[in-house]
Amino acid sequence: MTSSPLRSAPPSTASRPRVRQTVRVPPPQTARGAVDAALSACAGGDPATFGPVYDALAPVAHGTALGVLRDPDHAAEVTQEVMVEVWQTAARFDPARASARTWVATLARRRAVDRVRAEQARRDRDQRDVDASVVAGAPRDVVVEDVERRLEGAAVRRCLDSLTATQREAVVEAYYGGRTYREVAERLGAALPTVKSRIRDGLGRLRDCLGVARG
Amino acid sequence: MTGSAACATVWGWPVADDDPTRDAWDLLPAYALDAVDDLERRSVERLLESDPAARRALDEYRDVVAAFAVEAEPPAHVRDAVMTRVAGTQQEGSRAASRVDVPGAPSTPAGRSRHRWGLVAAAAAAVVAVAVPTTIAVQEHREVVRLEAQADRVAQMLADPDARLVTAPVEGGGEATALVSGDDVLVSAEGMPAPGEGHDWQLWIVADGTPLPAGLMPAASGGVSRALVEGGAGHVVAVTLEPAGGSARPTTDPVVAIES
Questions:
Q1: Each residue's pLDDT tens digit, B41-60
Q2: Distance from B14 to chain A by nearest Cα, in Å?
């Protein structure tokens, strides 16, 4: 058991995030409502209804998993687990809270990050007695050019320019590295509350730029 | 827009020096990025359970995080594998005892203990049947026979004068008790927090340092959750927080580990 204490971070002095009202932009795909409806409908238990849901959403799961894992085989395994979970838990999908795309991306990211951390823990165990300093973090390095390439076509790309360099760095490390903000702070040599604030402010700016708002 | 310091007492958790809901609010963006550790995750999920404004804020952050995803077509064999499993997998919330079929059978090459899953999951369902027999709607005769066999085993264990009891605190709240009788272990967890959205508590048998999946803890009834771990005696029985349906290998540190 290596979990850290519940609240070892000094209390942040920053105010809590505000939910700002922004103008809602039209969804990027006209099919979005149809996919949401198809996902809700497949909760009825008929496996035949899942085919179109798979076809619409598996690319979201796979793309999300690839972003974190990079390895196509690992990503394919996670995609498979996620899409079975989508079927099993379809009744939990609440279109009032998320689009089907966001819901699936959330599930996929969770599983991909879990896998990265399990792999990391395994690697740490294997290497503990060899030479931890040689391998520490190396396989999870986030390379800027690589990130640029992976962001091609991402809705968030145009908005990343609205972030400060340090906000962008923290968010990108956390997103593509699958890291906790604690790990991000260690890598960047920054204080915990600072990194927490950068992530919060960074996501806040992206939210405003993307026009994400839910009453 | 959020709860005040008064919320600090809602959960009955020890509150040391500051308002835990404020900490949890601060962690919402990192939570949306899965950039929190397990304990922080649970503290955020307690906030989410009580505060609709926090849920709305999280939903927005999740939209932002999802906007990073660039869609990519998975290999064709994934579709075949998923559709095959979908055809044979009960959905959550359907009428049959879903736990019997639900635990996401490990799809990774490392899923070496695949055959255990059905058995152990059935055991977990059976323990529920013991506790609240009238609420289980199991239609199939075969299933009933299997569940009754498990229920008999639990009854036997409870009556076994040689059974041993081992108790350990659960990290994050509650207490777990292992009743060891013969080869089997009946695990009871009292006062454990809910696993949270998209998660389950999963049991493991740790034999020779290797954790083998041993089913999911069923939802608590009256604050207590029980599961039968067959063949667990003499090994360490552990519980971890896993994505809904369970994992082939543990992805988090155990909240409790009992030497049975």
A1: 989 999 999 999 999 999 99
A2: 11
pLDDT band, very low/low/confident/very high, at B95 (cuts 50, 70, 90): very low
Tokens of A213: 């708002």
**What is the per-residue pLDDT across B23-46, written as a single tens digit (0 to 9) for each?**
899 999 999 999 998 889 989 999
Nearest CA in chain B to A150: B70
DSSP reduced 3-state for A29: coil
- The region that residue A113 occupies, defined by phi over 0 for left and psi between -120 and 50 for alpha, beta otherwise, is alpha
Candidates A180, A192, A194: best to mutate against B (most CBs of B within 10 A) is A180
The dihedral region occupied by A18, where left means phi > 0, alpha psi between -120 and 50, and beta the remainder, is: beta
Contact A16 B93 (CB under 8 A): no
Contact A6 B39 (CB under 8 A): yes
For residues B257 and B237, is the Cβ–Cβ distance under 8 A? yes
Cβ contact B34–A113 (<8 Å)? yes
DSSP string, A150-207: HHTT-TTGGGGGGS-HHHHHHHHHHHHH---HHHHHHHHT--HHHHHHHHHHHHHHHH
pTM over 0.95: no
Lowest model confidence (mean pLDDT) among A126-140, B59-73, B163-177, B221-235: A126-140
Of B51, B108, B57, residue with least CA distance to B243? B108
pLDDT tens per residue, range B112-151:
333 333 344 444 443 333 333 333 333 344 455 555 666 7
In the DSSP assignment, the letter for residue B34 is T
